[in-house]
Amino acid sequence: MPKLNENYQNVKDSYLFAEIARRVSVYEKEHPDKAANIIRLGIGDVTRPLTKSAIEGLHEAVESQAAAETFQGYGPEQGYAFVRKAVSDYYAKQGVQVDPEDIFISDGAKSDTGNITELFAKENVILVPDPVYPVYVDTNTMDGKQILYMDGTEENQFLPMPDDSVKADIIYLCSPNNPTGACYNKEQLKAWVEYALKNEAVILFDSAYEAFVSEPELPRSIYAVEGAEKCAIEFCSLSKTAGFTGTRFSYTVVPKELVFSASDGSTMSLRDMWNRRQSTKFNGTPYIIQYAAARVLTDQGMEECMQNISYYMENARMIAETLRKKNISFTGGVNSPYIWFRCPDGMESWEFFDYLLENAQIVGTPGAGFGVNGKNHFRLTSFGTHEKTKEAMERFKQLF
Ligand code: MLT
């Protein structure tokens, strides 16, 4: 009989967004007359179609697969050099230098933030903020690692800062944050880098929402902070930036400077380990997707993405305005597609989820799904259409 990884008994029965989908589907079955009326502002899934550059890139790549001279079979597991260069150039436009050799192309920041845990032994102490994107917690729980939490609260604007009395080996940071929309400034990130360097810790920095940062003084990459290449791995994706939630393309930066001692006194490079892991367990992102991604990362491609981002940020503005009118305190909505607010009338977040679904047919995300500090908070996304977001806000105003 196989011995099972019993750590799986310690993760929640289902993933947050699967549970939301389940509850919505039950509601639809029980209220078939209202099913068509449901407005989904829960999971952060985009609604704008792919941009012109992405579509042209996809078409060209498909055509090139039809000719023997240009056909591509297995590609390099790390990603084609042309797209790693495109990512490096994209960073350079933000004033950040990233060596293409340190860039690994993948199918999603979710996969990579989850898989990276394999590089670290079970004995590591993991530090995550609460509220938190559930993937960081679930994957470390599946590994049986010890997790410490740092509180994100209204008092610290949901931006927990390092505490010297806490000794962590691996720290997860996400900025702009999912779910709170809060964004670290450069001084705050500098404090995290200093903590990591002092404690020989590694920061796993999720910058999946960097393209939504509109205030130029806010860093979009941890590498905007000096010394971060000695302590941080960064995960980024085109899911929200370019509407690739269904198309799938991400990149992870593992700097060559990340070299640590092994227990036998030798040294090990995280970049080499990740390369080794990927070349055994991953055959690369599809060629046609990498080709289209390189198009997206050009100036023209990004200009088109920014038009979609402005569209979503107009939705964020509508949601924020509604909450302001109702005197409901919130974070996010600026530099972030998410709006995180306190549930009205002292409601608990799953209670509010049901209340909103039943009375206004609006689906959001209960804060409790992101940790105990979210139990009285709720997240709405701005990734809907203008029409649906406007309608949802009309219903919200009437309800409260
Ligand atoms: C979310 O809604 O938090 C995200 O869409 C989930 C994800 O990016 O995996």
**Spatial sequence of strands, sheet with the most strands:** 2-8-7-6-5-3-4
Q: Helical element count?
A: 11
Q: Which percent range describes the beta-strand content?
A: 15-25%
Mean pLDDT: 97
Secondary structure: helix percent: 25-40%
Question: Which structural class do you get from the secondary structure elements?
Answer: alpha/beta
Distance between the termini: 56 Å
Number of extended strands = 15
Low-confidence stretches: none
Overview of this structure, please?
The chain is globular. A hairpin with a 5-residue loop joins strand 11 (330-332) and strand 12. The chain starts with 15 loop residues before the first helix and ends with a helix. Strands 2-8-7-6-5-3-4 form a 7-stranded mixed β-sheet, sandwiched between helices. The mean pLDDT is 97. 37% of the residues lie in helices and 15% in strands. By secondary structure, the chain is of the alpha/beta class. Helix 4 runs parallel beside helix 5. It contains 11 helices and 15 strands. The protein binds D-malate. D-malate is lined by residues 43-45, 110, 178.
Question: How do you describe this structure in short?
Answer:
With about 400 residues, the chain is of the alpha/beta class. The protein is built from eleven helices and 15 strands.
Keywords:
single chain; 400 residues; alpha/beta; seven-stranded mixed beta sheet; four-stranded antiparallel beta sheet; 11 helices; globular; binds D-malate
